[in-house]
Specification:
65 residues, mainly beta, five-stranded mixed beta sheet, 5 strands, globular
Length: 65
């Protein structure tokens, strides 16, 4: 189980940050991913495995006027 933007979620063991972002439909456009207070670059999302108790913050930028 991980905490994503304050909500507990159950994930498959060995899931990556990339899989989480894709599952949530956030893989299009700019996004900032923070895992346990560390910002993870988009190029590394498929290399970082999630573990029980991780705290994930996802911020998506939206343009407008």
């Amino acid at each position: 189980r991980v905490i994503v933007n304050g909500e507990e979620r159950t994930i498959d063991e060995g899931s990556t940050l990339d899989a989480l972002v894709t599952t949530l439909g956030l893989n299009a456009g700019p996004i900032v991913v923070q895992r346990n207070d560390e910002i993870i670059g988009k190029s590394r999302l498929d290399q970082v495995s999630l573990t029980d108790g991780d705290r994930i913050e996802l911020v998506r930028f939206v343009g407008g006027g």
